[in-house]
Specification:
11 helices, 3% strand, globular, mainly alpha, two-stranded antiparallel ribbon
Amino acid sequence: MTEIFGVPVQALMGQLTIGLVNGCFYALLSLGLAVIFGMLNVVNFAHGALYMVGAFFSWMLLNYFGINYWFALILAPLGVAVIGVIIEKTMLRWLYQLDHLYGLLLTFGLALIMEGIFRHHYGSSGQPYDLPDIFKGAFDLGFMFLPKYRAWVVVLSIFVCLATWYVIEKTKLGGYLRAGTENPKLVQSFGINVPLMVTLTYAFGVGLAGLAGVMAAPIYLVNPTMGSGIIIIVFAVVVIGGMGSILGSIITGLALGLIEGLTKVFYPEASSTVVFIIMAIVLLIRPAGLFGREK
């Protein structure tokens, strides 16, 4: 069997695949956080809980209503987006002019409430979500077997990330969004409904978290703590990439997933801390993040 630095190729590629899949979830979640912070200036700590809610929505759609994975990919993120609209309309909009700490504390409290509700009703053991038949099995690449569903997660995640980046950075709609956050009164004078735009931006950001939750459901057990376990890493990704940087979140999320996978092969003891070690080094060298703007 071929080895690289004493590690079998199959084992190495397997861990890289797991790292890439994790990186796709980091990228999707950090992208949503970056959109919300970049456009609304809110540190949304409820993002992990809404990721969990998206996974539970897909599980409930399948088990209570018989609605399959393909419809859940649309309906569950929409359900999470509706929750986002309610949160923004009733709570967050009063905090935009205040210090970031108030939004952080509010969304942290909301995360605890959502997690507590689902833990009360479903416990902490986790619920399995069956793979769609089309994704059962794996591709034989010769040097390894690539599970079909993990390949689908990578393709869909990268497509959604790049599409979001393109819309925000390269289209007129994205220009309105950026202008609306920097000078809302001027944009409103052109007849654009800035409050509605802000609400939809928050809904879209948390909808990305809901989409990631649906995609994660067949891979991980759907449980109330799945969001709290990933949100700290996602915040580290956003800090490393640069707060509010769309492209930074995408590239950093994917890269850190791969680095995490490699660390599990060559130095497993550091796999749970490597992201935070990288964050500390980046903050020492470039406090604004790799892709952030220096003030």
